[in-house]
Structures are given as structure tokens and as C-alpha cells.
């Protein structure tokens, strides 16, 4: 049985202010923690802290957009009364285990499962620091009368992140070195260290307003962890044919162990499902679609820049998707697309995508289209991310070589038959289209960093909300205020989206036409174009004002109730 699917439920999670309460209703330390199996059973509960399927695929920042906007994009977040992510039950569970695990006489087992607990403590605190910045560090259980700990102030981010890295290092040293899809191992811990090092290093580099030291130390930690995994783990980039490999990696019912380091498991046999197929093919979940600027960012198949082509801004769908990076046609429906196991070509369905660029990443066979009935495994860590972390950290440190790119980004591009990034060419001729997205990026390596950011955006789209984290750590929240757009249409008319001789879409004014088999969209209500009847790109949520407060919105606020309970908690800047 997989670790994520439990036959025993340990009901030990409590509310955010219950750091001092011990889970004695479920576990008695006098009778438990005696064998390795006890340690295994207890630590199974830690896996609940990992992302759900929806947390993996439900990206909605500026890569994938919907017909509604998150509060973060509208600038309408407020200081919550309670909740708001300030929850500590997971940590209490972990620290309780660490306080009692040494009751097991098997020292090897204790070290192994302590390593697992410390992995999850690091994972927990990394999430808290990303969200709140400074947070109280608790490394042990708290007694009910320990007022000093219960009302302690927030510890400095620098101290907390040093503690996070110490926990990860312990996990690396003590976890199994086997490769297991559904179990945290040494390789998972190295992948986490790679992720944490890159995030924290670049956050400190670009967010000078926080005066955080040692950015390079974290970038170096990312590089070292990535190299260890690259040299010693045996993971590789999954390859099949260039026109199918990327799509197959995500549409496989079972995670592909060549590349996936850790996955959340789903099973028809055990009736553990998620909702991906239904999410992408109905109007029920916001009609998600790729945003125009991301579609424009995919290179041509020969490695040249699409946005260097004359007239790229007014290319219609069938033309703009031709001869592009094959990952585009394996991420959205393009002409000739068919469902897995079927041979009927399908065009984008505007009832299911607000931009016209309909998602197919993670979409599996039609038999899983029923509501909440999909079983594709969801990757939480995969090798491609580690390679991209490595390349970006090296570029940010100024130590990147062409040989480094050849053992990192080249592998993700080889999967689909794309030319690798050229370090010299990228820095000699930075892409102006990419550069206007990231005004905070400067320096001699700006050109190659732009290309690595492009590669990261394309390779990791629709996974684990990476895009939000990336924009936050790069200090590029201003990107979220720009208009979100979709396909280009010159105006009302009939459109053959896949150029097969049949009309697929009619954009009309006035009376609804009778065009059998075509999708009918009324201009001004069912579809909005930038210039109305004169055409333009689809406008998404044009009526909603987007704001991002550069002096406030890179962190979340501390809830009011928590500050009333603990008057030593300070609020984040400009959230008062």
C-alpha cells in the first residue's frame, strides 16, 4: 500500500494556537514508539502536509488564467481575523514525534525516521517563511504553562532558514538512498535543498529591502545539492519521441520513475481520485487557459525566437502554433490534437478555456473524464526542476559555463528535440520580449538568466504553483498587474481553427447564426476582443482592476486573533 493512502488515520492535527497540546488522545508515549513499525505508522501522517492534486495542477497566476482572479492578483487581500495560513498543528505533530522517537531501542530506525520528521519540519517552515517571512522557530514540544515559548516573538528569517537547512542536512544524512516514488528518501531531501537554496538565495539577492545576508550561501547550497543528485541518484529525463514524451510524463496513470522523485499516488482500486480531466474540459472551474505572453515565449522549433518574427502579434491560432517548441503542442490543444487512445482531431473548446489555449497537460484517457474520477499521479518533485534550479543558481552566482548548461537545460530540451541554450549568444543578444517582463534583472548574465527563466516557465507550467514563487523571489510582482490576454482574432467572422476545411468557431454580432458544428460566441458578451469589432486579442477579466503593492504584497499578513493571543507578534510591513 502506498504511503499516501492510509488504512490508519492519526487524528492529531489541532488548531494554530494548540502548539502546547500533545496528541495523547490518539497516541500514548508510554505504550507507543517502541518499534520501527510504530515509527513508520506515526510518520505516515506527515505526508498529509504535501500538496494535494489540486495544489499541483490548479495554477492561476499569469501562466494559466481563468475567468476569475485570486485576491493576490486583485490586491484585495486583507488582514484575516484568524487562519490565513498561520497554522501550527503540523509542526506540533512533528515535534511530538521527535520528542518521543528515542523510546525505540533501534538506533538505526530512530535516525531514519527522525530524518523523515526533520525533512517535513524543514518543508513546513519553508512554506511558512515564504508566506510570512519571520516566524517563531519551535524545535520541541511546549508545555501548557510555558508562557515564554507560547508568547515568543517571531524569530529572524535568517535564523529560521539556517535551521531549515540544518534539518534538511540531517535528513540527507539519515534517509534511505533508495529511489521510491511515494516515499521521502535522501534524494527527495536533496531535491528540497535544491529548491530551498534557489528560492532563498534569489529572494535575498533581489529583495534588498529586507537586508537579508548570505544570498550566495543559499545559492551554493542549491548548486551542491543539485550536483549531488545529478551525479549520484540515477534519475534522468524521461524520453520517448519528441512529439509525445513531455505529454506522456504527465498523463501516465503511474508516475514515471525515471524522472519523478516524489509523487502523490492516486488509484482506481483504492478509490483515491482527483479532478484534473473534469477541471480542464468543463466550464465549472474557471475555464483555465494559457496566457498569451506565455504562448509567445515558446521558441520556434529551431531555437529562434517567435517574438522576433514580423507580425507575430497578429498571427492567428493555426499559424502561430506551427513549428514551435514541441512542448507547446503537448501543453495545449493545437491542430491535429487527439485524446489518448482516440483518433478524432479536436480543436480548442471555448466553453472550457477563457483564452482559447486549452490545457492538455495531465489530461488522461476519456474514461477518467467524470467529476472527481481521475487517477494520474501528481509529481511533487521531479528531476527536471533540479536541473533548472542548478542552471539558475549557477547563473545567479556568475559561475555558469556552457558545460553546465549542457548537463542541465540541454537535457530538458533534448527531450523534445530543441537546441540547447547558448551561453555566449544569450548574453550577447538578450531577448527584448523577455527582458521587458523582468525589469529588475540586470548584469552580465542577464541574457542567459532570461533564457533559463523562459525554460523554467515552459517546463514547469501548471505544476506546484512554481510561477507564484518565482515571481515573488525575483521581485517581479508587477507582472501580475498587466492585462491577461488570449488568442488573436481580426474581428467577427467564421474561423477554421485547425485549417481542415470546416468552420470551428463563429464570432458574431447581432442575431446568432446557424453554422452546424461550430462554436458560436457573441462579441461583447461571450468573447471580448481588445478593439471590439476591429479585432485584437481576447481580453480576460478586463473589467477587474489588478493591483500589486510592492511595499506590502510579497508577504502575507499575520491574522488579528494571533496577535491578540500573542502580543509579541509583529505585523508584516504595511499590513497594519
Please explain how this structure is put together.
With 576 residues, the protein is mainly alpha-helical. Helices cover 36% and strands 6% of the residues. The strands form 4 sheets. It has a 3-stranded mixed β-sheet, with no helix packed on it. Strands 1-3 form a two-stranded antiparallel sheet. Helix 1 (36-44) packs parallel to helix 5 (107-132), helix 8 runs parallel beside helix 21 (466-473) and helix 15 packs antiparallel against helix 20. The radius of gyration is 25 Å and the shape is globular.
Sheet/helix structural class:
mainly alpha
What is the helix content? 25-40%
Proportion of residues in β-strands:
5-15%
pLDDT averaged residue by residue: 94
Number of helices: 22
- Taking Cα atoms only, what radius of gyration do you get, to the nearest Å? 25 Å
Name the poorly predicted regions.
1-17
DSSP strand tally: 9
Strand arrangement, major sheet: 6-7-8
- Taken from the alpha-carbon principal axes, the silhouette is globular
Please give the largest β-sheet. Answer: 3 strands, mixed
How far is the first residue's CA from the last residue's CA?
Answer: 48 Å
Per-chain topology:
Elements: H1 36-44, H2 53-57, E1 64-65, H3 71-74, H4 89-100, H5 107-132, H6 147-150, H7 157-174, H8 186-206, H9 215-232, H10 245-251, E2 260-264, H11 276-281, E3 289-290, H12 292-297, H13 317-320, H14 326-329, E4 378-382, H15 383-397, H16 402-406, H17 409-414, H18 423-428, H19 432-435, H20 446-459, H21 466-473, E5 484-489, E6 493-495, E7 505-508, E8 519-522, E9 536-540, H22 560-565
Parallel strand pairs: 7-8
Antiparallel strand pairs: 1-3, 2-4, 5-9, 6-7
Amino acid at each position: 500500500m502506498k504511503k499516501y493512502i492510509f488504512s490508519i488515520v492519526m487524528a492529531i492535527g489541532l488548531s494554530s494556537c494548540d502548539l502546547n497540546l500533545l496528541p495523547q488522545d490518539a497516541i500514548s508515549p508510554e505504550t507507543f514508539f517502541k518499534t520501527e513499525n510504530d515509527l513508520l505508522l506515526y510518520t505516515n501522517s506527515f505526508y498529509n502536509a504535501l500538496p494535494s492534486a489540486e495544489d499541483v495542477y490548479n495554477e492561476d497566476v499569469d501562466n494559466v488564467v481563468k475567468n476569475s482572479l485570486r485576491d493576490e492578483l486583485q490586491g484585495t487581500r486583507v488582514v484575516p481575523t484568524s487562519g490565513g495560513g498561520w497554522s501550527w498543528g503540523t509542526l506540533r505533530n512533528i515535534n511530538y514525534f521527535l520528542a518521543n522517537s528515542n523510546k525505540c531501542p533501534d538506533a538505526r530506525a530512530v535516525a531514519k525516521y527522525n530524518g523523515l520528521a526533520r525533512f517535513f519540519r524543514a518543508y513546513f517552515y519553508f512554506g511558512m517563511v515564504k508566506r510570512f517571512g519571520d516566524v517563531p522557530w519551535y524545535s520541541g514540544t511546549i508545555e501548557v504553562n510555558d508562557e515564554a515559548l507560547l508568547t515568543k516573538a517571531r524569530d529572524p528569517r535568517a535564523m529560521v532558514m539556517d535551521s531549515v537547512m540544518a534539518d534538511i542536512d540531517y535528513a540527507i544524512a539519515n534517509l534511505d538512498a533508495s529511489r521510491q516514488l511515494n516515499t521521502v528518501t535522501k534524494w527527495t531531501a536533496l531535491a528540497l535543498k535544491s529548491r530551498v537554496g534557489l528560492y532563498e538565495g534569489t529572494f535575498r539577492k533581489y529583495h534588498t529591502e529586507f537586508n537579508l545576508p548570505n544570498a550566495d550561501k543559499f545559492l551554493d547550497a542549491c548548486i551542491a545539492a543539485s550536483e549531488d543528485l545529478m551525479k549520484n541518484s540515477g534519475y534522468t529525463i524521461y524520453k520517448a519521441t519528441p512529439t509525445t514524451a513531455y505529454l506522456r510524463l504527465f498523463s501516465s496513470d503511474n508516475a514515471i520513475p525515471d524522472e519523478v522523485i516524489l509523487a502523490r499516488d492516486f488509484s482506481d482500486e483504492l478509490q483515491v481520485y482527483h479532478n484534473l480531466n473534469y477541471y480542464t474540459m468543463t466550464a465549472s472551474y474557471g475555464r483555465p487557459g494559457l496566457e498569451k505572453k506565455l504562448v509567445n515565449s515558446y521558441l520556434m522549433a529551431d531555437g529562434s525566437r517567435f517574438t522576433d518574427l514580423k507580425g507575430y502579434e497578429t498571427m492567428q491560432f493555426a499559424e502561430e502554433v506551427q513549428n514551435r517548441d514541441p512542448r507547446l503542442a503537448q501543453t495545449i490543444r493545437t491542430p491535429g490534437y487527439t485524446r489518448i487512445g482516440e483518433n478524432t482531431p479536436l480543436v480548442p473548446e471555448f466553453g472550457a478555456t477563457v483564452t482559447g489555449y486549452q490545457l492538455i497537460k495531465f489530461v488522461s484517457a476519456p474514461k477518467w473524464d467524470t467529476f472527481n474520477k481521475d487517477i494520474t499521479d501528481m509529481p511533487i518533485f521531479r528531476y527536471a526542476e533540479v536541473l533548472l534550479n542548478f542552471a539558475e543558481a549557477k547563473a545567479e552566482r556568475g559561475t555558469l559555463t556552457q558545460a553546465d548548461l549542457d548537463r542541465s537545460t540541454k537535457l530538458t530540451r533534448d527531450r523534445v528535440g530543441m537546441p540547447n541554450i547558448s551561453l555566449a549568444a544569450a548574453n550577447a543578444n538578450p531577448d527584448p520580449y523577455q527582458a521587458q517582463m523582468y525589469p529588475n534583472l540586470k548584469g552580465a548574465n542577464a541574457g542567459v538568466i532570461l533564457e533559463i527563466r523562459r525554460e523554467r516557465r515552459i517546463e514547469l507550467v501548471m505544476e506546484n504553483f512554481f510561477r507564484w514563487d518565482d515571481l515573488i523571489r525575483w521581485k517581479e510582482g508587477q507582472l501580475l498587474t498587466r492585462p491577461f490576454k488570449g488568442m488573436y482574432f481580426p474581428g467577427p467572422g467564421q474561423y477554421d481553427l485547425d485549417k481542415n476545411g470546416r468552420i470551428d468557431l463563429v464570432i458574431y454580432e447581432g442575431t446568432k447564426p446557424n453554422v452546424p458544428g461550430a462554436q458560436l460566441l457573441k462579441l461583447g458578451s461571450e468573447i471580448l476582443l481588445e478593439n471590439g469589432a476591429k479585432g485584437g486579442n481576447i481580453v480576460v477579466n478586463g473589467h477587474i482592476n489588478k493591483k500589486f503593492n510592492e511595499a506590502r504584497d510579497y508577504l502575507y499578513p499575520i491574522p488579528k486573533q494571533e496577535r491578540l493571543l500573542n502580543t509579541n507578534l509583529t505585523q508584516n510591513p504595511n499590513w497594519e
